[in-house]
Design a protein that fits this description.
Length: 475
């Protein structure tokens, strides 16, 4: 197989199809009697609960391969044979569910060399894993938060960076607790991930649920330091802290969140905070955040249903977590333009690199002089909008003697429609014409010709015509 793990991106109703492709190879060292060669790709479901067991196939695809010039029942000569195959797997098929002791959804490839009657067939099997991962635009990757006010006691916010969490990574639980009662303190903080498994023998009858299993897959206990002071957050004093929970790397210890073919697995992040009241009695704050655990295409499973990180080269698996885009205010790491190093940039058309105008030979006046001085200044000058606007005004106020004569001046075709632009190859015509600054009129700029009219027109915009500045267009 080209890939033994097929990745479906998105929910069953939105996921695109995926290509299953491979080659069946038969190597014969000596002639062998062959009746038929076939390949089968099946999806199998097994549910065992409450002393009952049910096994069925929900998916099947068959291939049969023929050998040119070979009749069934004859001897196949010694040689190497290859039969390529492919199949487009729909995006709505159930994903693989593995890790439970006696219940699963698995996909297998089975190649059979049928040798006919009174001969033992040759069979080869290969395991195929189908995973369903979240798309980068999925709503499950959004910010998960609970905000509640406990009357006359606390105002608290519990959140996680993302509702979707990759199996084998970590969960960051963020706390903001603002006391409303004087003398209130925080005691022990417990954070745990609880998994709930529901099984049905027949998915067509959801009311006939056969079993429910709950287990705790990860837990963190933290004794809040009594000497920690509150800090000012959003205009109120609050305790702000975070706790990190590490998820197991094995499907035997934690399944992915799934709901398909009689298998339903849910995950909740349960939070318990003990509050020490001034009268010495203890109150308990409990909250639950639903999460979605999914398998990442980067952190794939091995044959033991355990995430293998050998190919990461020591990189933290959490670095591959796909999260929601940052909020608008969270842009402190953005690089300013004045902090960029121009040495690694190449200007187009062979122009000089660095702070210069691209296609400098076609510019009315090269802008590399002033910007080069800014680049060599110590400290480097900042490129503020006011400074750039001032330099543009200086270019517009330059005298006609500073303008280049590489290109012909502008001819107003609206005054004389039959006037043609002088060709650049005629030096005498270019010398006789004095270049001048073009005065823009809003009425003329709003006249947009049709597409067919523009194609038939001989008018061309001269290279020394530049758009008006904001100051000139506002008058």
């Amino acid at each position: 197989l080209d890939q033994s793990t097929l990745v479906l991106r998105g929910i069953a109703e939105e996921a695109s199809s995926v290509l299953l492709r491979g080659t069946l190879v038969l190597c014969l060292a000596e002639p062998l009697k062959v009746h038929n060669i076939r390949l089968r790709f099946v999806g199998e479901r097994r549910v065992s609960c409450g002393g009952q067991k049910k096994v069925d196939q929900f998916f099947r695809k068959n291939w049969s391969f023929d050998i040119p010039g070979f009749s069934r029942g004859g001897s196949l000569p010694a040689d190497n044979y290859e039969w390529p195959f492919d199949y487009i797997l729909p995006g709505h098929v159930p994903e693989s569910i593995e890790g439970l002791d006696d219940s699963w959804i698995v996909y297998r490839m089975k190649a059979t060399l049928d040798r006919g009657v009174l001969a033992q067939d040759k069979v080869v099997r290969k395991h195929v894993r189908v995973i369903r991962t979240l798309d980068s635009t999925a709503l499950e990757l959004s910010h998960e938060m609970v905000w509640i006010t406990w009357h006359d006691k606390i105002d608290y916010t519990l959140s996680t960076p993302s509702k979707g969490v990759i199996l084998g990574t970590t969960i960051d639980a963020n706390f903001r607790i603002a006391p409303l009662l004087k003398g209130l303190k925080i005691g022990q903080v417990t954070t745990s991930l609880v998994e709930t498994q529901d099984l049905w023998m027949d998915p067509k009858y959801p009311e006939r649920k056969k079993g429910t299993i709950k287990r705790q897959v990860a837990k963190d206990k933290f004794d809040f330091p009594q000497d920690q002071e509150t800090e000012l957050v959003d205009g109120s004093d609050a305790w702000v802290f975070s706790r990190r929970i590490t998820l197991p790397k094995s499907l035997r210890q934690c399944l992915q969140t799934v709901d398909t073919l009689g298998f339903r697995t849910k995950h909740n992040l349960n939070i318990a905070v003990h509050l020490l009241n001034p009268d010495e009695h203890v109150s308990k704050l409990s909250a639950s955040l639903p999460l979605q655990i999914y398998i990442s295409p980067v952190l794939l499973m091995d044959d033991d249903n355990t995430i293998s990180t050998n190919h990461l080269g020591g990189v933290d698996p959490g670095a591959f977590a796909v999260g929601a885009p940052p909020q608008y205010g969270e842009h402190r790491s953005d690089v300013l333009f004045s902090e960029l190093d121009p040495a690694g940039y190449v200007t187009p058309a062979g122009a000089r690199s660095g702070f210069s105008t691209p296609f400098d030979s076609r510019s009315r006046r090269g802008s590399a002089d002033n910007l080069a001085n800014l680049a060599s200044a110590s400290p480097p000058a900042s490129f503020t909008p006011i400074a750039l606007s001032s330099r543009l005004n200086n270019l517009d106020n330059a005298t006609s003697s500073d303008l280049t004569s590489d290109y012909p001046p502008y001819v107003n075709s609206s005054d004389n429609p039959s006037a043609a632009l002088p060709r650049q190859g005629s030096d005498e015509e270019a010398d006789d014409c004095n270049p001048h600054h073009f005065e823009y009129s809003p009425e003329r700029m709003n006249k947009v010709p049709s597409y067919s009219t523009a194609l038939q027109s001989q008018y061309q915009t001269p290279i020394n015509e530049v758009p008006p500045t904001y100051e000139s267009s506002s008058h």
